[in-house]
Write a structure and sequence with these properties.
Elements (H helix, E strand, L loop, with lengths): L7 E5 L4 H12 L4 E6 L2 H13 L3 E6 L5 H15 L4 E4 L15 H26 L6 E6 L12 H21 L4 E8 L16 H10 L8 H12 L10 E4 L7
Parallel strand pairs: 1-2, 1-4, 2-3, 4-5, 5-6, 6-7
Helix pairs in contact: 1-2, 1-7, 3-4, 4-5
Length: 255
């Protein structure tokens, strides 16, 4: 029996990378149903094939998580169909090229905050609405970043958004822990996802510099290694872990 046996879960940013690996890990650990959420329809179909091969029920939702009405409708649909929402992994996010602070365009700032912070607020808000109706509460895990506690050079808006995710996580944990809802954040280091590779599949120059700067071993983190931590935080094994920011970077940040 898996550690998530019989649970209903959702994963945003499920079309690739950490989201895809976590959907797979959830399926391996026995979730009853996993809702796959992203704007990338093709990527969602690829993830769904992995989940289906593991004999796990799934649904595909091509949704922009920055749009509250769409998120609310999607959550209602999931709960109406499956009765409950036990686990939510809010993972969707973007990145931008590096920029000096004084050259950062306001539109880039707005897009980053909207996608990497406001969307997390929207998702958590509607997840809580449903979890409060459950006798067993629920678990929320949010994807922040090492940039949630130390600045990412040339990424002031990314740094601000990821710090914000840590703050949201603590606020939810403090307010709803007594009501049976736990909320934690993961703070990955440099993970081997499509986001850090160019059109030829090679590491971007920025990724190479970042890897040299932050990784003690010089190795990229595998998405499945992040997924293992998300799975643990979603299980009863971590039932006393709440409001925490778990750094997963091999020891690059120690504080």
């Amino acid at each position: 029996m898996g550690v998530l046996e019989g649970k209903t879960a959702l994963v945003t940013g499920a079309a690739s990378g950490i989201g895809r690996s976590t959907a797979e890990a959830f399926a391996k650990e026995g979730v009853l149903h996993v809702a796959l959420i992203d704007t990338d329809q093709e990527g969602l179909l690829s993830t769904s094939e992995i989940v289906e091969n593991l004999k796990t029920s799934f649904s595909i939702h091509c949704v922009d998580v920055t749009e509250e009405d769409s998120v609310a409708a999607t959550l209602n649909e999931i709960v109406d169909e499956h009765g409950t929402l036990d686990i939510a992994f809010n993972n969707a996010g973007i990145n931008h090229p590096s920029s000096k602070f004084h050259e950062l365009e306001l539109e880039d700032w707005k897009e980053m905050i909207q996608t990497n912070l406001t969307s997390v607020f929207i998702c958590i808000k509607h997840e809580i609405i449903h979890m409060l109706k459950s006798d067993t509460g629920g678990v929320i895990v949010n994807t922040s970043s090492g940039a949630g506690i130390v600045p990412a050079p040339g990424q002031a808006h990314y740094t601000a958004a990821k710090h914000g995710v840590v703050g949201l996580t603590k606020s939810v944990a403090a307010e709803y822990g007594r009501l049976g809802i736990r909320c934690n954040a993961i703070l990955p280091g440099l993970v081997d996802t499509p986001m850090i590779r160019d059109e030829n599949g090679e590491l971007t120059e920025r990724a190479k510099r970042t890897l040299e700067r932050i990784s003690p071993s010089g190795e990229l983190i595998k998405p499945e290694q992040i997924a293992e931590t998300v799975t643990w935080l979603s299980s009863n094994a971590s039932e006393k872990v709440n409001g925490q920011s778990v750094v997963i970077d091999g020891g690059g940040i120690m504080r």
